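Q: Joint fold for the lines below.
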Amino acid sequence: QQPVQSPQAVILREGEDAVINCSSSKALYSVHWYRQKHGEAPVFLMILLKGGEQKGHDKISASFNEKKQQSSLYLTASQLSYSGTYFCGTEGADDYKLSFGAGTTVTVRA
Amino acid sequence: DSGVTQTPKHLITATGQRVTLRCSPRSGDLSVYWYQQSLDQGLQFLIQYYNGEERAKGNILERFSAQQFPDLHSELNLSSLELGDSALYFCASSVDGSYEQYFGPGTRLTVT
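A: Joint structure:
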């Protein structure tokens, strides 16, 4: 089953923060986050394995609550380069399939 | 540049035809994944191969098939093409499952 992402879109000014949520109805083994800019391929941001760890990449961090089967991506002090569509991909605890959410389009304006 | 190559970059063909998309993974990566991305369907997982063997199957139609060769490159075969098959097809590779995936630039397929 495809994970559900929210919000669908968000518009930020440079320096503002945002949170993107990803939830699944099935038990998860891992959550992946990717960013795709218009006309380009998705680019890996981070992967979180079950265990509730939190990871960060520059000012982008994420958390994974395996009990709630949810993950959140935090964009802190956003930069123009953060614009793009963010996808979460969830891997089930009993399969190897990575199912992607519909994506969250982030627009950062000067 | 992710290190994953895909050919061709663009493909225009007619309904009912058959096409083959090719993917070369990053050096050292044993897993290859195929995805379909269309405007109304988002990024859909099609199939995964690991070291020549099929490992996982997603929403892949029976008209589509794939294989991974001994040199680890992979091909996705699409047959009896329909207008709805028009999409961007991405190949991605990783060391193994549950590791980060590196996406190729994609092949844009247009079925007329």
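Q: Anything notable?
A: The first strand of chain B starts at residue 5 and ends at 7. The mean pLDDT of chain B is 93.
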